[in-house]
């Protein structure tokens, strides 16, 4: 039988409430119940509408911040690419294969994750607000975000997770300004890793040889 967490435990306990509705809803989703309870992704996303991709991405980046038994960091990459491809093909809500829908984190794992990111999340909460919907709602903008998410950009661990956390918050809070920042940061990362790997340099040299 599930019981509420003890005083001082769980996300948001003994702390001021978050200002933004999307983050508050996310916290309420994981706050009460047995920490050992398994939370299937299909159940988490079942009643969500516009925020579904944001919540899915939020859960997908867990291994980038905390170790999860039986769920290594390599799981994040395929899940993020799955999210990106679905947005690229203009799905408005995530589609989950059965074997993914039945899996998910434990409630206690989400508590640890939310505790770990509490400080930066509260700072971001003061800046986030719904704005610039033209960078989120139209299908071309939705698809472009999906394209960037579906690319295998080789971020590592915390850096990878923090970039995706910003994507998740932009989707959750419908913040087009934050999404624009994410686009610029992702394109900069693509250029950086492209140059550092030598692939982009080789492509550029070949292009100039064809032109001149």
Which helices and strands appear, and what pairs or packs with what?
Blueprint: H1 21-31, H2 41-45, H3 52-60, H4 76-88, H5 98-101, H6 107-116, H7 118-127, H8 139-150, H9 157-173, H10 176-197, H11 199-211
Unreliable spans: 1-9
Percent of residues in helices? 55-70%
- Mean pLDDT comes to 80
Q: What does the oligomeric state look like here? A: single chain
Tell me about this structure.
- With 212 residues, the protein is an all-alpha fold.
- It has one domain (21-211).
- It contains eleven helices and no strands.
- The protein has helices spanning 21-31, 41-45, 52-60, 76-88, 98-101, 107-116, 118-127, 139-150, 157-173, 176-197, 199-211.
- Helix 3 runs antiparallel to helix 4.
- The longest helix has 22 residues, at 176-197.
- The termini are far apart.
- Mean pLDDT is 80; it is low at 1-9.
Question: What structural keywords apply?
Answer:
11 helices; globular
């Amino acid at each position: 039988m599930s019981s509420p967490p003890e005083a001082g435990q769980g996300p948001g306990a003994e702390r001021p409430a978050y200002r933004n509705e999307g983050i508050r809803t996310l916290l309420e989703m994981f706050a009460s119940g047995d920490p050992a309870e398994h939370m299937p992704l299909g159940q988490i996303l079942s009643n969500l509408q516009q925020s579904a991709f944001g919540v899915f991405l939020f859960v997908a980046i867990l291994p980038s911040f905390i170790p999860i038994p039986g769920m290594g960091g390599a799981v994040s990459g395929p899940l993020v690419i799955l999210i990106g491809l679905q947005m690229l093909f203009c799905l408005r809500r995530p589609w989950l294969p059965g074997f993914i829908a039945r899996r998910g984190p434990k409630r206690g794992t989400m508590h640890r994750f939310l505790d770990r990111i509490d400080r930066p999340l509260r700072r971001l909460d003061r800046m986030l607000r719904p704005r610039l919907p033209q960078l989120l709602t139209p299908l071309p903008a939705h698809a472009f975000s999906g394209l960037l998410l579906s690319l295998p950009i080789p971020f590592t661990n915390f850096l990878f997770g923090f970039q995706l956390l910003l994507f998740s918050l932009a989707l959750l809070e419908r913040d087009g300004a934050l999404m624009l920042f994410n686009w610029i940061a992702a394109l900069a990362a693509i250029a950086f890793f492209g140059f550092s790997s030598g692939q982009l340099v080789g492509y550029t040299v070949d292009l100039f040889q064809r032109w001149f």
